[in-house]
Each structure stands twice: as C-alpha cells, then as structure tokens.
Amino acid sequence: MPPEVEKPPRKKWQLVAVSLFLVLLGVVLIFAYFTSAPRSFPTDQSFDITSGSSASAIADAAQTAHVVRSGTILYMVLVFLHDPSDIKAGAYAFSEPMNVFEVANRLSHDVPQAELVSLTFPEGYSVREYALLASEELPDFDAEYFYEQARGYEGFLFPDTYFVPESYTADELIVLLREAYQQKTATLRTELTTHYLTEEGLITLASIVEREANSPESMRMVAGILLSRMNLGMPLQVDASMEYVLEKPLKELTPEDLKIDSPYNTYLYKGLPPTPIGNPGLTAIEAVLFPEPSPYLFYITGTDGNFYYAETLHEHNANIARYLK
Description:
By secondary structure, the chain is mainly alpha-helical.
C-alpha cells in the first residue's frame, strides 16, 4: 500500500490566498488611481495639440497639463484602444474632470473646440470689471445681470483664463468661477479654515494685497505689515479700498477722496473693509497665509516701482519725501 501523501496545512493556503488578494487589490487601487482624473484637472481650460504631434508627445503634453495622471497609460490606451491618427490638432476643452479612458475617447473622436471663446480675468479685478470683460467677448452676455448675481461672491471668483462657448450665460460663468476658486485653493483649505481670520477676512486682505503690491516678494512683505497693523489696532490706511468704492484709478485719488465717510475707508475705520475689493489670485492668497515677518509697519511704492519699508512714521515720511517726488 503506497504511503499517504501529506496535505499542506490549511492555514498555509489561506495565507497564500490572502497575500494574492492583497497584491491584486493593490494593483487594482494603483490602476484606479493612475487612470482617474487628477485633482488639478484643467476644467474649461484649453489643452492644445499641435499639428504633427505623435501619440507619445500628445500623452506627455496631457500629463504636463494635468489632463491625465500618467502619460504612459494614456499612450497605451490611445494605441491599443483607439487610432492615434484620428486625433486632430487644435484646442480641446473639458467641462468636467474625466478619467484617462474618457480623455482618450474625446481626443480620438471629437473635433477640437476651436469655437470656444477665451475669457481672461486678471488678478485683482472686481466683479464689475469681470462683467465688462465677459460682455466684450460673449455676444449675448448680460453684464448687468451677472453683476447683480455675482457681486455677493466678490473675492471668490477665481481670476484666470477660461475657454467657454459663445452662448455661455451669466449663471454658468458664476458657477465656473466659483468652482475654480474651490479647485485652486484646495491645497490651502486647512490654512484657510484654521487661521485666526475667517476665510472671508483672509480673502479680503488678499484682495487688498493684490492691489497694493506688485510681486510675490512685495505681496508677502505687505501682507505681513498689514497683519501687524491689524494686530496692533492700527488702521490699515490703504488707498486701494477707496479706489474700489469710487471706481477711480489709484493715481486719480485725491486727499478729499480719502476723507469720504465709508466703511471701505481704512483711514477712518480700523480693520478690514466689509467685503473683498476684488478677486485675488493664488499668489496674493498665499502671501496672506504665509506672510514675511518683519519689524516694518509702513510701506510705499516709489515712483520707480520699488517698495520702501519703514519701522516708524518718521522713517516713513522720509521715504515719502525721497521716493515719491
């Protein structure tokens, strides 16, 4: 009688099965991650494909533009599931985030949306200025309706370049700009919600910094100075808030303008204005969240465009006499 073959222990097979399951699960999760839409997916912004681009060049460009997480995976999908020669050169825009398979399908089957209109909203511009810019590019855009509906979101309509259809409505544009703000500030959400200022206060200060400063370095310095003035109970004394109220260029403000009794007059009233005075960009927002500490309490922009800082009012007046001639 042949000897009985010893069966492997049951626990050993269970361990192998669990290990295989975990490996398979890891592969599935990794695959799902690299085929999903990136968090910074460029919604309603143009992705350009130049004439003569190869499939690999298109895939690499898509990864650089954050259309996909992995250019390699997009390349494989284009080659094995589509015909890359079907892809036409031009500008493509996506109204919502898409996974890599949806992106490949769009590129392979859609005609470039060359008919999209480019809307550029510069940093610091107000809702009223947004309305005028949009009405210049969109033939049937209701600028006054946009202003009435959007002015309550002043500061939270992110400045950027957007590509939209000519038929885009005021309501659609408001949704687009508000969503862009949330997407662009997503990585700053913790700082925006835990700061001793409210998020609206931070954005209000950022909107002032956007108008008062002109470079990342000066924005951080000015943000630090204005925060110090607030913490010491000093008025901010910024011209930009009255520029916003009166809709006058800074150079046209008069000494009488700075005496007008308005809650936006930071010479007469301490603290921040009631609302943001424009829509700040990411650099200004980051400057307020991560200001440059300094002993200064005063600053001016000289006629040469440079910033000059002072610790005391005496030094500040000396800077005015020297650099604002």
